[in-house]
Amino acid sequence: MDIKRIDRTQIGVLLIDVQPAFFDWAFPDQNTESESLLVRYEHLMMLSGWMDLPLVATFEIPVSENGELPERLEAVFPAEGQRFVKNYFGCMSEPDIAGAIKKLPIKQIAVAGAETDVCVMQSVLGLLQAGYQVFLLEDCLFTSEPQPAPALRRMYQAGAIPCTLKTMAYELSKCVDESPYYPEAWEMKEHPGTKPFPKNFTPPEQWPVWTPKL
Question: Deepest in the core among 119, 128, 161, 195, taking most CB within 10 A?
Fold first, then answer.
């Protein structure tokens, strides 16, 4: 049986349209759900930067109205991350984005962003059609649509793999003493050549509660 497992040497991250305008539409009251998402995006980018995971971020036009990343996410965006402005809802319909992804030395992509039932869904279908293993970070998705379940089912039926950021973090680290967000265990073992871990990274168990829109 072919079991899909996250491979640190093979996975990249696609962050789709995490822009202030989409947050305003989905969370007009700036509630606890939006805060839960922002915390997860911060940790996704910190983890990507520390583990040198290729990261591609997209921004839907008009950027002058939709904005780019919220300020707190700009502060943790990986130095090697790539940014693209897009017109098509599906990322793989944009030649420059598709070309950039195809140049990356990866076979797997973790997908996060907005909107679940539009840009995320169309991008995921395009990635699957291009032959990538897609891990859908369901706790890192949002939309103004109150019923995204049909879009999620469609992506999973097409071959996307359900996942969460916590699951991804533990699958990437693999064992206790390779999980730097547990300092006592991490410090018991030598890690030569490893870059300093972000000081403001908190263990997944301390992240705000995630409430799925299903």
Answer: 119
CATH superfamily of domain region 11-206? Isochorismatase-like (3.40.50.850)
55 backbone dihedrals φ, ψ, rounded to 5°: -130, 130
Q: List Cα–Cα distances, 167 to 6, 61, 76, 138, 171, in angstroms.
A: 10, 32, 21, 11, 6
In contact, 111 and 123? CB cutoff 8 Å: yes
Taking only the tens of pLDDT, the chain with its 214 residues reads: 788 999 999 999 999 999 999 999 999 887 788 999 999 999 999 999 999 999 999 999 999 999 999 999 999 999 999 999 999 999 999 999 999 999 999 999 999 999 999 999 999 999 999 999 999 999 999 999 999 999 999 999 999 999 999 999 999 999 998 999 988 888 888 888 888 999 999 999 999 998 876 5
**Residue 83: HSE in the Cβ half-sphere, 13 Å Cα cutoff:** 14
Secondary structure (DSSP) of 60-109? ESPHHHH-SS-HHHHTT--TT-EEEEESSSSGGGSHHHHHHHHHSS-SEE
